[in-house]
Design brief:
Layout: E1 2-5, E2 8-11, H1 21-32, E3 36-38, E4 41-43, H2 46-54, H3 56-67, H4 80-102, E5 107-110, H5 116-126, E6 130-138, E7 141-155, E8 158-167, H6 175-192, E9 198-202, E10 208-212, H7 217-232, H8 252-262, H9 273-281, H10 287-292, H11 303-319, E11 327-329, E12 351-358, E13 365-374, E14 380-386, H12 390-410, E15 416-418, H13 422-434, H14 438-446, E16 450-452, H15 453-460, E17 461-463, H16 470-473, H17 488-500, H18 511-540, H19 558-579, H20 583-595, H21 598-614, H22 618-621, E18 628-633, E19 648-653, E20 666-673, E21 679-684, E22 695-700, E23 707-712, H23 721-734, H24 741-746, H25 768-780, E24 786-791, H26 797-810, E25 814-818, H27 822-838, E26 844-847, H28 853-857, E27 861-862, H29 868-871, E28 876-879, H30 882-885, E29 894-899, H31 907-913, E30 917-924, H32 945-950, E31 961-964, E32 966-967, H33 972-982, E33 988-989, E34 997-998, E35 1013-1018, H34 1029-1042, E36 1046-1048, E37 1054-1056, E38 1062-1066, H35 1069-1078, E39 1084-1087, H36 1088-1091, E40 1096-1102, H37 1114-1118, H38 1121-1128, E41 1131-1139, H39 1151-1164
Parallel strand pairs: 5-6, 8-9, 12-15, 15-16, 24-30, 24-31, 25-28, 25-29, 26-27, 26-28, 29-30, 32-33, 35-41, 38-39, 38-40, 40-41
Antiparallel strand pairs: 1-2, 2-5, 3-4, 6-7, 7-8, 9-10, 11-17, 12-13, 13-14, 18-19, 18-23, 19-22, 20-21, 20-23, 21-22, 34-36, 36-37
């Protein structure tokens, strides 16, 4: 089978699986390899790096073992199942090796020997197809890569180079695998002089997942730098804090003992890292310290929250050593819907519900739906619904909802009890994902059939436990569990092991699945027992149920019923077409079916959020940045905005440290209703409000209590858009939309252009003037079709659009302009009018909202949507939103519909507007700000226009549309990051952009020592989630350093920098308000959304958050690629990124998060050298 050549084995035949026990053992050694000492230095493996990524504490302990081997007696017991899986992984690696041999590829195996590294280099130089067990090193790292696979491309080796492959038995790719691959890729780069473009993970489901190396490599580099720094600074005397890690590998018991001995604050239930940091600042470092402290205020912690933390710490300390923890029933306010007042009376049909979910599957998989209930004989029973893939998930979800809904119809006093929000969130998610059971779930939610016991417990109970999980709460009413699976986290791990190595297909035949089932039964039973225990406490304290007792019937309107019939007809047609092999047509029929209820699904999360918030306490709403808790009336007398105003304005004060977005115009008062039972609404008078000082002015119809809490009113009417979508769907089903722009778009067809050969580039010239003429020609000869023009930052999208529209006006065309916002519509309209006046091109111009005084100055008419039809005429340009162009009276009214910012407009709205036009021009960039989506939608029905058209493609193919690939804004030192990280290296910087520079004063020694480029400015801070005074202070200092410097424009004109030359951008409005207060009045400060489409020589980007995992709206928002693209690309010359260094330490729990954080790592390392004019 194998021919031996010293330490190299040339493999000529397929290996038999498991044929070499020694080989399996050898591979296990490789998997488990840890740091070791070699000639007085520590050698690390890629797995050491990934251990540090998961747990700096565990990595520190492994280093300690090198010095003190006695510590090994403290490690946790070995996981026998993991050992078994490692052997299974070895067999999987054997299968991959066989596949290479069977493909007639030349394969060389490198045997472990002192010459392994030299043998690997020799094998690479020989150009063999596959190198197996390649020995790689880049000190202090060494390791054995599973496979090096030869691919075409220039390198030090010649016209080829190698990619690195790693085999994993898992069916889901995890971050640690990618980091290991990046480590091998860097070692490989050192040998062949080229970083491999891709890294490959050969997974256990026969899926070879190819990843672009640079999408993860910068995260890896940053991680490696921190890892090496940590181990270089290692000292036995320095004890690493276990609380700074979220897991401990084989040192879990050791770490937990350390935390207990240290009396660490992290042991206090519900405390956050941010709160711990703030307590440290005032000298409160232990649980006993917070119990003993007389301090009643800590900056950044609400006083009520601080009081709760003190009480929580005390009851936990008092519970130490007790078999049953202490508890206290919290004081209850009569008529307030919190705590035990949320617990309904019992019903014989009540059910007790728990889901086991698997988050590692793309989009998550709810694989076990378990229910405990009582039969007619009052004997406790259990029912389960299983799903091991998406299709089964859909079936199980439907079966569960139908079974549950049937019980509720029998007895509408019945309730579904669950613990925490996961179960409701799963039902909402799957209802949207599959477009099923919407009526049933809505009815159950609307009638408060779901009862979240976590809210009941947290609102009524103070418990002497370190967590408020049901596993801790149940210590009050039941004995310790005896199930093999001990927690939800355990169930995820165990279920993943079953997926990797199934020991049976169902719980009846699988020991693993049966163990998970037993755990779920225990959870469901515990939920039922908790309800009984809580009812006793409710009775003891005389607390009555304040939830819904009267049935709320769903409004079933005729048009909804008709839409459902139409949806079902479209879905049935889609099935027929799919069976016939017409996949593309089937997908469009399915899309039409699902967009019918797009707007209804979009509204659901708004209602859910509202009802969720109405069930929360003031204290719980403090951390909701959309709400404003505990506002207190000031002494300022009520006043009217104008003499004729009906309602008074009242001023309220709030804690200015409470993080608040403050972007809504209307709010609802928590817990207050009008005499007719409806909610009380108030309007924010923003010009009289001072959020940074903690003051808000509210206009209201009646005087309210001294203390109130505000919940945003997010309701927006959507008529006539859904009706227009319905009409288009009906036309499509009848076959009336053949050869129309909307169907061309939905089918993702190549645009139909008269005289253009399909499949060829639509424009070919790189000369700007000739390219513009080609674009104008393509639009002019569009044949009842669509054309997408992707405009990267500063690439002249508006310039192109106004020239195209002006040409169409000379042909007498009727043109519509739309977008999501009137501001975006009117921006293009104003530019078009100004250009037409300059070129003496006549036309009629109108819009439906006055957003700029320039409109009136230019003679643009402004009227309502219902007046558009009566003003239509040849050579006209009309601007409005989908609410206007979806109207019946505008059907077939226009020759061209221009959608600006098409990356933010939904496909659903495009379908509604498409009735009004023959041709559609899509202008925008899916890599800039995206669609503000709220709901969960089936298939592609929730996508924006450009996301639907291009999916994950960063730049539009030249045969499908036009990519404006030259930026006339950004200096190449700024554009380099934008082009490489966002646009696949395809965005070029115009040559004269590099004439822009900001002269560095002679003798200047500070951080702003570049004339152009991206300047990262690290600022250390802790505990900040969406605002940082430390960053504000640094930005003010740096801005003043820039004022008065000499700026050279593209035309060579020199002038002094002033405040108008800078944009100050932050992701959160709370930071925006702090920056406005600290900077001069003329400073341009705003969120990313505010500045899209604008530019300035200098941009400051403040990242605000200390910890991305605790940041407002999460890391996905903070590090969002599109938002970073917009923020940085506003800069003509210089982008200054102010950030906490701890953001670079953000832990990634999945591949998407890893890629997200990688972009930020790439940004702050994007311009390491000074950029001078002429360079």
């Amino acid at each position: 089978m194998v021919k031996n050549t010293n330490s190299v084995q040339i493999i000529k035949e397929p290996l038999k699986v498991g044929s070499s026990e020694n080989w399996i053992t050898e591979l296990n050694d490789k998997i488990l390899i840890a740091m070791y000492i070699e000639t007085d230095r520590i050698i690390y493996s890629p797995s050491d790096l990934t251990l540090y990524m998961d747990s700096p504490f565990a990595s520190w302990m492994e280093h300690s073992v090198l010095i003190n081997s006695e510590l090994l007696s403290s490690v946790d017991a070995q996981d026998e199942l993991m050992t078994l899986l490692q052997k299974k992984g070895a067999l999987h690696e054997d299968e991959v090796l066989k596949s290479f041999v069977e493909a007639n590829l030349s394969v060389i195996q490198i045997s472990k020997s002192p010459n392994a590294a030299q043998d690997t280099i020799a094998a690479m130089k020989s150009g063999v197809d596959i190198i197996y067990q390649a020995a790689l090193s880049l000190l202090p790292f060494k390791g054995y890569a599973d496979f090096l696979v030869k691919v075409e491309g220039k390198s030090r080796l010649g016209d080829f180079y190698y990619e690195v492959w790693d085999t994993k038995l898992a069916k889901t790719l995890k971050p640690y695998v990618v980091i290991q691959l990046c480590c091998y890729a860097e070692m490989l780069e050192a040998l062949q002089g080229r970083r491999p473009d891709y890294i490959v993970a050969a997974l256990g489901n026969a899926n070879n997942q190819r990843l672009r190396t640079n999408d993860y490599f910068y995260y890896y580099q940053n991680l490696k730098s921190r890892f090496l720094q940590a181990h270089q600074n290692f000292s036995e005397r320095h004890l690493l804090n276990p609380a700074d890690s979220t897991s401990y590998s084989r040192w879990t018991n050791y770490a937990e003992n350390m935390l207990t001995q240290a009396d660490h604050l992290c042991q206090i239930a519900t405390i956050t890292k941010s709160q711990i940091k703030k307590l440290y600042k005032v000298g409160v470092n232990t649980m006993q310290a917070i119990v003993d402290t007389d301090c009643d205020s800590v900056k950044g912690i609400n006083p009520d929250v601080l009081t709760r933390l003190k009480a929580q710490a005390k009851i936990q300390k008092d519970s130490v050593g007790k078999d049953v923890p202490l508890y206290q029933i919290l004081p209850h306010e009569i008529d307030k819907k919190t705590g035990l007042s949320l617990l309904p009376p019992s019903s014989p049909l009540d059910i007790y519900f728990d889901i086991e979910g698997f988050p590692l599957e793309d989009g998550g998989l709810e694989y076990l739906w378990g229910v405990t209930y009582f039969d007619e004989s009052r004997v406790r029973q259990y029912k389960d619904f299983w799903a091991h893939n998406k299709e089964q998930e859909k079936i199980s979800f439907k079966a569960f909802i139908e079974w549950t809904y049937g019980r509720w119809l029998q007895d509408q006093t019945m309730h579904i009890y669950h613990y925490a929000n996961y179960e409701i969130a799963a039902c909402r998610k799957l209802m949207g994902r599959y477009g099923i059971c919407e009526h049933e779930v809505d009815q159950l939610l609307r009638n408060e059939v779901f009862v979240d016991l976590y809210k009941v417990v947290k609102g009524s109970l103070l418990l002497g436990e370190p967590r408020y999980s049901i596993k801790n709460v149940e210590h009050l009413y039941r004995d310790k569990r005896s199930t093999e699976v001990g927690s939800g986290g355990d169930s995820v791990v165990v279920y993943e092991r079953w997926r990797e190595d199934p020991d049976g297909n169902s719980w009846e035949t699988s020991k693993i699945l049966n163990a998970i089932r037993e755990y779920n039964i225990d959870d469901c039973n515990s939920t039922q027992e908790l309800v009984d225990w809580l009812r006793l406490r409710q009775k003891e304290h005389g607390i009555v149920y304040l939830g819904k007792t009267e049935l709320i019937e769903a409004e079933v309107q005729d048009e909804i019923t008709e839409r459902i019939k139409l949806r079902d007809a479209l879905l049935q047609k889609a099935i027929q077409l799919k069976d016939q092999g017409d996949i593309k047509n089937a997908e469009v029929h399915s899309l039409f079916a699902w967009v019918l209820d797009f707007h209804r699904r979009e509204k659901k999360p708004m209602y859910w959020r509202f009802f969720d918030r109405m069930g929360l306490s003031d204290e719980e709403l403090i951390d909701d940045i959309d709400c404003l808790a505990r506002c207190k009336r000031t002494n300022k007398p009520p006043y009217k905005q104008t003499a004729r105003a009906r309602n008074f304005i009242y001023e309220y004060a709030f804690d200015s440290n409470q993080e608040f977005k403050g972007i809504c115009e209307k709010y609802i008062i928590l817990g207050k209703e009008r005499d007719d039972g409806k909610n009380i609404n108030v309007n924010v008078i923003k010009e009289d409000s001072y959020f940074d000082e903690g003051l808000i002015a509210l206009q209201m119809s009646q005087e309210l209590d001294e203390i109130i809490t505000l919940i945003p009113d997010e309701n927006i009417p959507v008529k006539p858009i859904p009706e227009a979508i319905t009409q288009q769907a009906e036309s499509f089903l009848r076959g009336d939309l053949v050869n129309t722009a909307i169907v061309d778009f939905l089918m993702r067809n190549i645009p139909r252009i008269i005289g253009h050969q399909s499949g060829k580039p639509i424009v070919v010239s790189h000369d700007p003037s000739l390219r513009l003429l080609e674009i104008v020609k393509a639009v002019r000869y569009l044949d009842n079709s669509y054309l997408a023009i992707q405009g990267a930052p500063g690439s002249g999208k508006t310039y192109t659009a106004k020239h195209v529209i002006a040409e169409l006006l000379t042909l007498g065309k009727k043109i519509a302009i739309s977008s999501n916002s009137h501001k975006a519509i009117n921006h293009l309209l104003i530019n078009t009018v100004e250009y037409c006046k300059q070129e003496r091109i006549t036309g009629y111009f109108a819009c439906t909202k006055d957003t700029d005084e320039t409109l009136t100055e230019l003679g643009v008419d402004i009227y309502k949507n219902e007046d558009i039809a009566t003003h239509l005429q040849p050579s006209c340009v009309i601007g409005t939103t989908a609410w206007g162009f979806a109207r019946d009276d505008l059907e077939n009214a226009f020759d061209y519909l221009f959608i600006d910012e098409a990356g933010q407009v939904s496909v659903a709205n495009l379908i509604a507007m498409s009735r009004s036009t023959k041709n559609i021009i899509l202008m925008g960039d899916q890599m800039q700000l995206g669609q503000p989506l709220q709901g969960s939608h089936p298939e592609d029905s929730g996508l924006s226009i450009l996301d639907y058209l291009l999916h994950t493609t960063p730049t539009i193919p030249e045969s499908m549309g036009i990519f404006l690939g030259t930026t006339y804004r950004m200096h190449s030192a700024v554009n380099r990051f934008i082009s490489d990280a966002i646009y696949e290296g395809k965005l070029e910087s115009a040559l004269d952009n590099d004439l822009q520079c900001i002269k560095v004063p002679d003798g200047y020694q500070g951080i702003l020592n570049k004339e152009a480029g991206i300047i990262p400015v690290p600022v250390f801070h802790e505990g900040n989630t969406q605002a940082s005074e430390e960053e504000v202070e640094k930005i003010v200092l740096l801005a003043h350093q820039l004022i008065g410097r000499i700026f050279t424009t593209k035309t060579g004109v020199e002038r002094l920098i002033d405040w108008s030359d800078m944009l100050f951008v932050a992701p959160y409005n709370h930071q925006v308000n702090k920056l406005k207060s600290a900077l001069v009045e003329q400073a341009k400060v705003g969120s990313v959304d505010k500045f899209q489409g604008q530019e300035a020589p200098i941009v400051f980007l403040s990242m605000c958050a200390s910890d991305a995992n605790e940041s407002a709206r999460g890391m996905k928002f903070l590090f969002d690629k599109n938002r970073i693209n917009v923020a940085v690309s506003r800069a003509q010359c210089m982008a200054i990124v102010v950030y906490s260094p701890s953001l670079l330490e953000t832990a990634a729990s999945n591949i998407d998060q890893l890629e997200t954080v990688n972009l930020f790592c790439r940004l702050v390392n994007s311009c390491p050298i000074n950029v001078r004019v002429g360079n």
